[in-house]
Each structure stands twice: as structure tokens, then as C-alpha cells.
């Protein structure tokens, strides 16, 4: 599952905070060009710190060999801890990089209540207020570890390449959001994010895209399937068919125990119902989610507009630094918002 996270720039230990306060909001955004050294450096930091979480995800597969009874117990009783390692990396629940550390100036740090009593942390980061995409917002759902602050380099590149606004929601039980993560709760969180943007005066008429990476892709699929008239397009990267179908890859000895998994995330049964344009971004060297999962989701999709973009050198975490990644997203968004996209199935 997606685990891209990064430490903030130098002197981060002096800048990281536990409970973010809303900063003064400026009318401008300090942003380098899409391919600037600063942007590339931030992304490289994001990718360079992924190996520890990837190792965490592979640990059950190594440790479980020959321990079927222990594995059965882990899979049934501890699966939430395995699927939602919100404590990884260390201090991920308390050390939250802030947008100001990545030179964002026009942003808000929010706490949003859910209808079941939780309080969710979020960042709303504005792009250009006068650009062509000033009325376009991307809702961003991250992978299963770290926090929204760790994905700020990705948000930076999205804004640099598109000029859009980015809304980053923190799941319950992650970062400083309250609660404990599970499938039903994360689905409530996603709906809360969409409802918030549609109720907020500034964004209620914005064109909305939903962008999900790995676990975030499953969250995105469920949200879009339920709210298609409210969303313009869906962007998926390295996500899986379902959690039960992913288990044999992450924990091979547990392949016969997959039915014990009660965190299902049935993207393979939901994807066919989605009719909004979909962009599939697949790292063909993905070592966590086999690329066949993404290809199968693409094949199952019946969306009139669906685009397949493979990255031959991209693994589960490094696809974001592959050449053309953000340009592909920018082109997809431009074509959807302008109406210049054929009713066909494409490969790029």
C-alpha cells in the first residue's frame, strides 16, 4: 500500500509541530517551476524515506512462514494494525510537517468534524487565484502510513504543474485526527471531505477531482462511486483490487486465510459503476501491489473515458518521480475541464 512520506527541509526538527495553528493567509503562493531543483529535491526526500515502511509491510510475510496459528490470529485480530500503520514512521501521530515548510503561503489548516463525532485534520492549499484552474480543487487521499504532512511535496508538484487547489484530508487515527482507522470510518472521512468542499462558499462551485494512492485509491473509488454527479474525474495510482486479493502478495503464507480479512475494500466490484473519466497511473515495478491489480481495475472499468499510463521504472513508492507523472495528471485534468477528451479508452 502506498507509503510516500518525506521529512521537511533542513532544520525540520525546529519546525515540526504537534497541533498546527492556522497561519495568516496570504494572497499569493511562492512556488517554483514544476521541474525546479527545489521541487525535485522535495520529491526525492519523499521517495528516499519509503523503504522503512515498505519493509514494515513485507515483515509479516517473512516472519509468518511456519507460524500458521500466529498468522491466523494476526490476520483476524490485528489486521487493522497491519493495514493502517498510522504510527509509521516514528512520531507520525505527532510530528506533522506544515505547508509553510514547503514554501506554501496561501493555505489553511483545518479541523473538520464528522457526523460520527471525530475531528479530522486537513490542509487546504490554494494554487494561483487568477490562473485557469483557480476553480479546480483536487481532493487527495494518501496511502496507509504517515500523515498528510509527509505528502506535501506531492501537493507542491500538483500545484506547480496544474495551478489547481489541493485539499489534503487526514484519516481518523492518523496524524492529529481523532479516532481509530477502519474501512467504514475512512469512508465516512472521505464523504466528510467532499461534503465540506461542497458546503464551503469558496469551493462549492469548484470542479473537483479525486486523487488516491494505494489505500487512498480504494478510498477514492468508494467515494466517487457514491458521488459521481459531484466529481469531474478520478486519478488512481498503484491501488489494489481488494484487500483480500492483495493479502497473498503481502503475506503469501496467508493466502488461504484471506477470507478472514474483514477490511475488504472491494474496489474490483465498485470500479465498473464509475462513469466519470478515470486516469490509471501504474508503476510496473511495484513490489507491494502487483501491477496486475491496476491493469485489472482498468479492464473492469466501464467508464466512457479511461486512460492507462504505465511507468516502466516506477515501483510502489517511486512512481511520483518518474518522468511525465505530473504532466500526465495535468494533461488529464486540462482535457476533462475543457471538454477536450474523447469518449474512448486510451493508453498513453
Give a brief description.
This protein has 348 residues and is of the alpha/beta class. It has one domain (33-347): Alpha/Beta hydrolase fold, catalytic domain (Rossmann fold).
Please describe the structure with a list of short key phrases separated by commas or semicolons.
Rossmann fold; alpha/beta; 15% strand; hydrolase; 9 strands; Hydrolase_4; 348 residues; 34% helix; disordered N terminus; nine-stranded mixed β-sheet
- Please give the number of β-strands: 9
User: CATH topology, which one?
Assistant: Rossmann fold
Parts with pLDDT < 50 across at least 5 consecutive residues: 2-32, 61-66
The gyration radius over C-alpha positions equals 19 Å
In the sheet with the most strands, the strands line up as 1-2-4-3-5-6-7-8-9
The fraction of residues assigned to DSSP E strands is 5-15%
Helix content estimate:
25-40%
Name the average pLDDT.
85
In whole angstroms, the N-to-C terminal distance is 24 Å
Q: Give the number of helices.
A: 12
CATH superfamily: Alpha/Beta hydrolase fold, catalytic domain
* CATH class descriptor name: Alpha Beta
Write the CATH architecture name.
3-Layer(aba) Sandwich
Order of helices and strands: HHHHHEEEHEHEHEHHEHEHE
Gross morphology is globular
Integer tally of domains: 1
| Sheet with the most strands, sense and barrel status | 9 strands, mixed
Structural class: alpha/beta
Protein name: Alpha/Beta hydrolase protein
Region (Disordered): 1-36
Pfam families: Hydrolase_4 (PF12146)
Domain Serine aminopeptidase S33: 136-266
Amino acid at each position: 500500500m502506498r507509503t510516500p512520506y518525506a521529512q521537511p527541509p533542513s532544520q525540520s526538527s525546529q519546525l515540526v509541530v504537534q497541533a498546527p495553528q492556522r497561519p495568516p493567509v496570504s494572497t499569493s503562493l511562492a512556488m517554483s517551476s514544476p521541474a525546479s531543483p527545489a521541487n525535485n529535491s522535495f520529491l526525492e526526500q519523499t521517495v528516499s524515506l519509503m523503504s522503512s515502511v515498505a519493509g514494515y509491510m513485507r515483515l509479516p510475510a517473512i516472519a509468518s512462514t511456519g507460524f500458521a496459528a500466529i498468522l491466523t490470529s494476526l490476520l483476524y485480530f490485528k489486521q487493522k494494525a497491519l493495514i493502517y500503520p498510522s504510527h509509521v514512521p516514528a512520531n507520525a501521530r505527532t510530528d506533522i510537517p506544515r505547508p509553510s515548510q514547503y514554501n506554501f503561503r496561501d493555505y489553511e489548516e483545518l479541523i473538520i468534524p464528522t457526523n460520527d463525532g471525530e475531528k479530522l485534520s486537513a490542509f487546504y492549499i490554494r494554487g494561483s487565484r487568477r490562473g485557469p484552474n483557480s476553480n479546480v480543487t483536487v481532493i487527495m487521499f494518501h496511502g496507509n502510513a504517515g500523515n498528510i504532512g509527509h505528502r506535501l511535496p506531492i501537493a507542491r508538484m500538483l500545484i506547480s504543474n496544474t495551478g489547481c487547489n489541493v485539499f489534503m484530508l487526514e484519516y481518523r487515527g492518523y496524524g492529529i485526527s481523532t479516532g481509530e482507522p477502519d474501512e467504514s470510518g475512512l469512508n465516512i472521512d472521505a464523504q466528510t471531505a467532499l461534503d465540506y468542499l461542497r458546503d464551503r462558499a469558496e469551493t462549492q462551485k469548484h470542479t473537483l477531482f479525486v486523487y488516491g494512492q494505494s489505500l487512498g485509491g480504494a478510498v477514492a473509488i468508494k467515494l466517487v462511486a457514491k458521488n459521481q454527479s459531484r466529481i469531474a474525474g478520478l486519478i488512481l495510482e498503484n491501488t489494489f483490487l481488494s484487500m483480500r486479493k492483495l493479502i497473498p502478495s503481502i503475506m503469501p503464507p496467508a493466502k488461504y486465510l484471506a477470507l478472514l480479512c474483514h477490511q475488504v475494500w472491494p474496489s474490483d466490484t465498485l470500479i465498473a459503476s464509475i462513469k466519470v473519466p478515470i486516469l490509471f497511473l501504474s508503476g510496473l515495478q511495484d513490489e507491494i501491489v502487483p501491477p496486475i491489480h491496476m491493469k485489472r481495475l482498468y479492464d473492469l472499468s466501464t467508464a466512457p473515458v479511461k486512460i492507462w499510463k504505465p511507468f516502466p521504472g516506477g515501483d510502489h513508492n517511486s512512481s511520483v518521480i518518474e518522468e511525465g507523472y505530473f504532466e500526465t495528471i495535468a494533461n488529464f485534468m486540462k482535457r476533462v475541464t475543457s471538454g477536450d477528451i474523447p469518449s474512448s479508452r486510451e493508453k498513453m
